[in-house]
Fold Serine hydrolase.
Amino acid sequence: MLQTTEHALLRRLATEQSTSRAPSLVAGVVRGDALVWHGERGRVDGAAPTTDTQYRIGSITKTFVAVLVMRLRDEGVLDLNDPLEAHVPGTSFGRATIAQLLSHTAGLTSESPGSWWERTPGADWDALNRSLTPDTTKLRPGSRFHYSNVGYGVLGEVVARHRGTDWYSALRAEVLDPLGMARTTPHPEGAAATGYAVHPHADVLLHEPTPDAGAMAPAGQLWSTVADLSTWARFVGGDTGGVLHPDTVAEMREPAHVEDADAWTTGYGLGLQTMRVGGRRLAGHGGSMPGFLAMVLADPATGTGALCFANSTSGVGIGALAVDLITTVEQLEPSLPAEWEPDPAADPALLALTGHWYWGPTPYVLRLLRDRWLELVPVSGRGRASRFEPAGTDEWVGLDGYYAGETLALRRDAAGDPSHLDLATFVFTRLPYGTPEAVPGGVEEGWRTT
């Protein structure tokens, strides 16, 4: 970062710490594959916190649990449309699907019954399940977004049953160790901040408890550091280190439901919060537990991300701070586009398919992308456009837009030459209605003037 950029970032951090009266506040910015800036204000045990000082990250824990679930999906162990009953039988809400639990649309109660779970020691799964009576379902599953900590306690149990171990052991083996995140733990180890509540009318502190949440731990148990969470910011942006395919993380970032339907500025995907800010699409998650606030956000389009921790129960604009850090970097040091270079693996057979195709009289352009992907776009720029990834010989599957999930098939004539494209029954020909025998309903007459 340029000195002017670093000063602007530090000033934003310092202003937040001072005006919010946070005992300590730390932040970092990532770009590409590196933590390019970090800053801190306040004290932890009488000294400035470092990139190795642990803070409790609260609900950011949910993003880790969601990754474990998506790994199970990618392995074919479960389907996102599976009812919970297929994996954890014996609950009162077994018809809720895995996808609904991930996206907070299962209709479950927001908090576990009984004492405030964030401030009291938690029980095991059997005790939690006994407390979840039929009244636990507050809304029709799938009807709307309703944030549920309980849902992620349940997902932790899904992971545990399939992996034959507790959720954190699975997380350590499958995600944290491969990514080198040794300082992300369920309890503080080594240098760690103490959680405080700050008196609303005086500059004094109250020590907050940090009990083990038991079966509710997957909803918010973890502690982490600037160094570790910078790796996670890159992960959210698509630099997955082989733990998940980047396409799966992109799927997680897509909003399954929005919280403010009229404006669509915030939503929730599969374990990730999403937002639109100043023309950017950001993804990540916030976290809060008594004594702590945290946020991690990434802009997949630019590779810029930000993360922030405070050891204060409330009062710190942690989400706005993370957004402002990303915005500041992008304004003062805009990211450069990737350098273009020819595709050395371009397939000549696919190259021959590129160019104009017609859906009836409407012209489209078929482009060849990297890795044998195709893109079909209306020439006018208006209408249905999608990208397609290979799915077999002469077949591709839609990735986005109207044709997401649909099959694009290349049809050949008796001689084996390309004849037309078949996309979810829509026929595309090289000329307007240029392959009459392929057009549903036939083409009775040629083009005429009257």
Q: What stands out?
A: The longest strand covers residues 280-289.
